[in-house]
Amino acid sequence: MKKRDIPNCISIFRIVFVIPIIYLLLIEQYTVALFMFLIAGVSDGLDGFLAKRYGWESPLGSVLDPIADKLLLVSTYFVLCWQGQIPVWLVMVVIARDVIIVMGAFSFYFLVGRYDMAPSWLSKINTCAQILLGLMIVASLGFIPISAGVVEGLIVLVFVTTLLSGADYILTWGLRAWRARRKYYS
User: Fold this and answer.
1) pTM attached to this predicted model
2) Triad 12, 13, 17: Cα angle to 5°
3) CATH number for the domain including 153?
4) pLDDT per position as a tens digit, 52-82
């Protein structure tokens, strides 16, 4: 293993970490789940920092990192929704955004060609808001009472940032596809 593989190893670690976190949430061991969720959240920032800071970015990392994020967040949101902590409509909006982005990426690839998709700043804010909502709810279930108003505010924040980041991806990549196709047919 080389130093440049460290960010990818961290992403794989996060993917594997999803299983015990979900299990702990299901058996209502919220304090340990919170600790592990926090480690997973911090490792998300760490792998990105290392990749950018030291030039260790890779095509594999550009796939592993978002997969790790989505597995952790969507799985956590499913469990918290099933436990009545997150509204179903929010989980559906979060999943719909991700499905639209994946479908758009495949469409762009097959209709236009290869691309390097880096997350937008809106997407990064959305991911942070999603992680924060998950952390606050699990913390509230574990040992730190969080007011309903704070949780409701975070739910609204996640909803708004999910819509905005989804719209940003659609507009940005839609324009790039339109320009590329227009240039091709000119």
Assistant:
1) 0.85
2) 120
3) 1.20.120.1760
4) 899 898 888 888 888 898 899 999 999 999 9
